[in-house]
Write a structure and sequence with these properties.
43% of the residues lie in helices and 14% in strands. It is an alpha/beta fold. The chain binds adenosine monophosphate and zinc ion.
């Protein structure tokens, strides 16, 4: 596999057989918009590509449920409090509601759930510990009750994003307490927001963590001191990831902390989507307009993740028609019920296997992978049964559910995942009970080498 590493700005060979993957997750004060979801789709394509290469992936994603100023464009209000006021709920209810909404969205988009999803508010202790490590190393200073990271103590600070002095001066909100404009807060006791609800005791006083520290702390808590791949949207490169790297390398004393930094380009809409202006598209908006979430998944596969993707309803409509035609063709392939798990890859048409693997392994060239899929589906020189198996195999990466006659409800997938876990723990009584429950809901589950499949 060759992947573009934003850190080295080149494509590099990815060698490791086990993958520690950290992906920055959502801020749960509102629904995720389809731009955010483009980034999670890219991360899903990445994870599935690792997996089809036989690699074992541990995928960790944080849930940002502490209120923050997360961008320079934010006004001076805590996002969580804003959400709570808007809906007449507490900040904790808002966080829970939108975390569940996020899970529903990713299920509908057939994005695999991360191995571990961790909330910032459940890991305050780890964040405090990391700030203490930074303090002991001499990387911090305190002004007006707030603890800052002193970027002048870390001479590689500008390297990840190749930041110029001017861009560092220009990019952050002004704060006279900072020694350098690019310094950032690790712990607030002197809240920027008068009505900050979520507060914790700390060695520096009662308050709450800065935004960046949660990722550094939870990444090392769940993945140790070395991360193979760390990803997010391209906007994270110059501030959030730059700050995460500075914190982690200084606190943990490792270099490099991350082997591969990977960033997805933005989904672009005619009018910039903004949660604060309420003019953003969600999975529900698409569904209400008659689209299936998988139409959007298909649409994002047609543009390389490192290129901006212009959203238009026309493009989504074409994606919908193409996906439906493809689904129908695959459903029409006469097949004997053989499944990928039953057949050795080496027994399948070598040309399609090679072409598909070289596409996905070439820095996730999904547009090319989709072209290979289309060629395969209509290739009359290959038996229908074999084409069907090849599609099922390719779909492990593409995730379009092409061999399913209907879309499996998330509840069934959840039960099947629980059953898989029970089997892995050799708890066969529980696994049989779950199989019966799934059957009673109208689905038959079959075990394969890689996991399971529905029939
Ligand atoms: P947030 O919930 O704002 O922290 O964003 C969640 C993820 O979505 C981050 O990885 C962002 O980089 C990414 N993101 C935000 N806007 C867009 C967009 N228009 N297109 C693609 N990714 C985005
Ligand atoms: Zn992060």
């Amino acid at each position: 596999m060759r992947l573009y590493n934003s850190g080295s700005r080149t494509r590099e060979l990815f060698k490791s057989d086990t993958v520690n993957m950290y992906a920055c997750g959502p801020t749960v004060y509102h629904y995720a918009h389809i731009g955010n979801l483009r980034t999670y789709l890219f991360e899903d394509f990445l994870r599935r590509t690792f997996e089809i290469n036989g690699k074992t992936v541990k995928h960790v994603m944080n849930i940002t449920d502490v209120g923050h100023l997360t961008s320079d464009a934010d006004d001076g209000e805590d996002k969580m409090v804003k959400g709570a006021k808007r809906e007449g709920k507490t900040v904790w209810q808002i966080a829970e509601f939108y975390t569940n909404a996020f899970l529903d969205d990713i299920d509908k988009l057939n994005i695999k759930r991360p191995t571990i999803m961790c909330k910032a508010t459940d890991h305050i202790e780890q964040q405090i510990e990391m700030i203490q490590q930074l303090e002991q190393g001499g990387y911090t200073y305190e002004v007006n009750g707030n603890v800052y990271f002193d970027t002048s103590k870390f001479d590689r600070y500008a390297d990840l994003a190749n930041l110029s002095f001017d861009s560092m001066q220009a990019r952050v909100e002004s704060d006279n307490a900072k020694r350098q404009p690019q310094d950032f807060v690790l712990w607030f006791t002197n809240s920027k927001f008068g009505d900050q609800d979520m507060q914790w005791d700390s060695p520096w006083g009662r308050g709450y963590p800065g935004w960046h520290i949660e990722c550094s702390a939870m990444a090392s808590h769940y993945l140790g001191n070395k991360i193979d791949v760390h990803c997010g949207g391209i906007d994270h490169l110059s501030v959030h990831h730059t700050n995460e790297l500075a914190q982690s390398e200084c606190a943990l004393g490792v270099q490099p902390w991350v082997q591969f930094w990977m960033h997805g380009e933005f989904l672009v809409t005619t009018e910039k989507m903004s949660k604060s202006k309420n003019n953003f598209l969600t999975v529900s908006t698409l569904e209400e307009s008659g689209y299936n979430a998988l139409d959007y998944r298909y649409m994002t596969l047609l543009t390389h993740y490192r290129k901006p993707l212009q959203f238009s309803w026309d493009a989504l409509t074409s994606a919908k028609h193409a996906r439906e035609r493809l689904h129908k063709k695959v459903q029409g392939l006469h097949h004997a019920g053989a499944l990928v798990g039953d057949v050795k890859l080496s027994e399948l048409n070598e040309s399609y296997v090679t072409r598909f693997m070289s596409a996905v392994n070439d820095d996730l060239n999904m547009p090319l992978a989709i072209a290979v899929l289309h060629d395969c589906v209509k290739d009359h020189d290959v038996s229908e049964n074999e084409r069907y198996i090849l599609v099922e195999w390719m779909d492990r990466v593409l995730g379009l559910n092409l061999t399913l006659s209907q879309v499996i409800p998330p509840k069934i997938i959840e039960l099947a995942d629980q059953r898989l876990k029970a089997r892995e723990q050799e708890d066969y009584a529980r696994s049989d009970m779950l199989r019966d429950e799934i059957l009673s809901l109208g689905y038959t589950i079959l075990d394969t080498k890689e996991g399971y499949i529905f029939k």
